[in-house]
Design a protein that fits this description.
Number of domains: 1
Structural class: alpha+beta
Distance between the termini: 11 Å
Largest sheet: 6 strands, mixed
CATH architecture: 2-Layer Sandwich
CATH class: Alpha Beta
Strand content: 25-35%
Helix content: 25-40%
Number of helices: 3
Strand order of the largest sheet: 1-2-6-5-4-3
Length: 128
């Protein structure tokens, strides 16, 4: 399987995480959104991909433990930074409360570890 690129910018490439079966929960969630909501998500990806940062914490925030959240209201797309100027989007959900649900953050952390393990073993990206 090759990377599934959401946006390739001057500063960062944003990729959808996929599991061992080739399934990407975050991409499936994105594909289920209305067009207007998809545009909000893609604008945030473009902003960080091209400029390298989003200073507005209402749009992008460090959630701790190396997990970051893209915040196109009311949705959340959790992610992490990886070497090679990559941002990997792990999971997505509709936020229903003020605080980030702990189970969603834990899931993002587990998927980050899964990604790291698979990349180190040469099992994530297809070799050319």
């Amino acid at each position: 399987m090759r990377e599934i690129i959401a946006y390739e910018g001057l500063c960062f490439t944003i990729e959808w995480f996929y599991d061992e079966n080739g399934v990407s929960q975050s991409l499936e969630y994105f594909n289920g959104l209305r067009d207007a909501q998809k545009r909000k998500v893609l604008m945030l990806f473009k902003r960080i991909g091209d400029s390298g940062k989003i200073s507005d914490i209402t749009k992008f925030r460090n959630e701790g433990d190396k997990i970051y959240a893209f915040k196109p209201q009311p949705d959340r797309f959790l992610s992490f930074f990886y070497i090679g100027k990559k941002i990997i989007v792990t999971n997505a959900f509709c936020k229903k409360s003020q605080k980030l649900p702990e189970n969603e953050k834990q899931r993002a952390m587990l998927l980050m570890q899964n990604y790291n393990d698979r990349v180190q073993k040469g099992m994530y990206y297809e070799k050319d």
